[in-house]
Every structure is written in C-alpha cells, then in structure tokens.
Amino acid sequence: MDKPIIVYEFRSKFLFKPTWGAHRRRSKRSLVCSQQWKDKAKGSPNKYHRCQKFKGLSVLAHVASLITIPNQSDSVLSKEKPTKPKRQRIKPRPRPRVTRRAGPHPPPCLPTQFMDKINGLNGQDLKLVIQKRLSKTDMKPRFARLSIPKGQVRTDFLSQEDHTILEQREANGINYKGMEVPLIEPSLAKSTIVLKKLKLGCSKSYILSSGWQKVAVDNGLEADNIIQLWSFKVSQIVHLALVKL
Is 199 part of any domain? Predict the structure, then answer.
C-alpha cells in the first residue's frame, strides 16, 4: 500500500498542523493526498483520521528532536539578580527603668513616734519599701487592696523564705497565697494584714489585701494622700509600718 503524501503548512513557530480533515473543511487545502488514498478514505474515514493523527504525531516528534532546548540551569543563572548584602539588624537599646516617685524628695525619715514603737519591739533592719500617692483604685472598696508595684519598690525587704511562701498558689492554681504580716498603722495601732503577690498582665506586684480597707477607714486615708511603707524585722520575721505624710 502506498503511503499518503502529507504536506504540512507552517502555522506557528514550532508546530506543524494538518489543515485539511473531516473535522473542518477549508477553501484552500494545504494537505495533498494521493487519489488512491482518497478513494480508500471515503469508505473508512476513521482509518484515514487515525493514520493522519499518527502521521502528525510522528512528524511532531521528529521536529521536536531537531529542536535544541537551552540548558534550564543556564537560563536560570542568567536571570538571577546579584545578591545584595544583608543588612545587620540593629538591636534596640534597653531603656533605663524609670522609677515613679511621689511626694517629697528625698523622702523624709521615719517619724520619732514610729521609731520608739519599733525600738520597743526590738526591731532591726529598717528599710523604706515605697513612697507613693494613693490612687482611686487603692481606695475603692470593691478592690480592697493597696498595690505596691515592683517598679516603685526601693529595696528588697523580703527574705528568701518569704519569697518562697509568696510564690505558692492557691487550690485553683491561679491566685497566689499570702502571708500575714504585723502592721503598725498611722495611728500607731497594731494590726495584722495579708501581704501577697498579684499578677497583672505580664507584670507582678505586691499588694496588701485582707484588712486594708479597715486600716484605710480607721486612719482616714483618701485618694491622693502620700504614704510611706516601711519594713523592719523582729526575730527574723518581717513587720510593716504605714506612715501618712
């Protein structure tokens, strides 16, 4: 059997396509077949189409083998932009911690009547814990606490054992346990108050909680009053003294 003579028209850059077939007939035919093959194709068009399809694929494969594709790595390397040197990230300098101070500066010494009271108890290691202005939150009954922010604490007045006790948590695993501390009130009366830690966001602070509201009422404390909180130890037990300026 004679093979059909197939002529392909160059339609695109790398592709040859037959432009005559059973799917679509055009006015100008560029595919010429022998008369003998045309007569046989009339009886079995599917066979002709299959042959035409395979012929087209073989020609495309031959054309593809002749085309040389440049190395992909070379093209990628040629398109790569020169790498810029990385900028060194400058770390921000830590800002110095600013301690908020309220009231007279330097802070006044402990009044004489308080010193006599402490000496009568054989108190030692006297330290000024904080001098602050009472806020509205300190005086609200629903909070019932005096906050002692760590950023305003002038010196560490607790022992390692006291820190261990204050780090213990209650049964709920959230709130901290407190410790009862003897207190000398502004009126020189003796009482007991609870000292504990309170976590506010990412920061922690000390607070005087149970008994604070009664101390504030008995001594006429109001918001914006300047107070001092002193610490001293009697037989290695921490005591506190609250002074109203």
Answer: yes
CB–CB of 241/126 below 8 Å? no
Does 105 have pLDDT greater than 70? Answer: yes
Number of domains in the chain: 2
Tell me if the pTM is above 0.85: no
* pLDDT tens, residue by residue, 126-156: 999 999 999 999 999 888 899 998 888 998 8
Q: Within a domain: residue 166?
A: yes
- Which CATH number is 165's domain given? 2.40.330.10
Look at residue 7 in the predicted model and tell me its pLDDT: 46
Which residues make Cβ contacts (< 8 Å) with residue 187, sequence separation at least 6?
A: 218, 219
Q: How far apart are CA 51 and CA 74, in angstroms?
A: 40
- Give the Å distances, CA to CA, from 112 to 85, 220, 227: 69, 21, 16
**Bridge partners for 226 per DSSP:** 133
Note down the domain range covering 226. Answer: 112-244
Between strands 16-17 and 9-10, the pairing is antiparallel
